[in-house]
Amino acid sequence: MHDTTTITGPALSAALRAGTRAEHAAAKETPFVEHLLNGRLDLAAYTDLAVQQHAIYTALESAGDHALQHDPDAAGVVLDELRRVPSIEADLHHLLGPQWRSRARVLDATRAYADRLLQTGSRLTLWVAHAYTRYLGDLSGGQAIHRALQRHYGLADDGLSFYRFTAVPRLKPLKDLYRERLDALPLTTSQRRDVVAEAQAAFRHNRAVLAALGARHPGPADAR
Length: 224
Prior knowledge:
Layout: H1 12-19, H2 21-28, H3 31-37, H4 43-70, H5 85-96, H6 100-103, H7 108-118, H8 124-139, H9 141-153, H10 171-184, H11 189-216, H12 220-223
Helix pairs in contact: 1-11, 2-11, 4-5, 4-7, 4-8, 4-11, 7-11, 8-11
């Protein structure tokens, strides 16, 4: 990945934040998210979301492991304390029971997203785009989602492990460290543009999943 090409422009984390601002706002405004966080759906809707998250994070973390084996630069951004798959599996065990794997239904939009993620394992430049959109979102807005789900759906710690980073004493220092490590990756200007473009694609895939969930779980306004 190392290249001697002169790097110009903002740091990678700043370029990602600016380059995905519109996509991030659009994702937050999808009807499924609005209805879920305002308590207009039911526990089945959240459970369905958790099923899709399991497929997405299984692919993300499998691709990250592949990148770690093939690119020494991955060591700074593939962090064990961020892994979500064990937590999601604990949630699904609580929500669907010990046979949750046989009851989980992965949507076509989720499969397309997971396929895209698996393809990034051979290119760290693309994997970090997805890691940025998922993990930093979980460390930031995910905490507000956690509180809303607790409030509206009668969930305590069981069922919401995904949103708790038990291996991280304080979230902000980890977020700052992760941005610093993203910025330190030895990427050319062209590669950084590729990362931003892939992050935008990640948001589009995520919105497709949310739209599919919305079709399965319409809120009061959508059902009319």
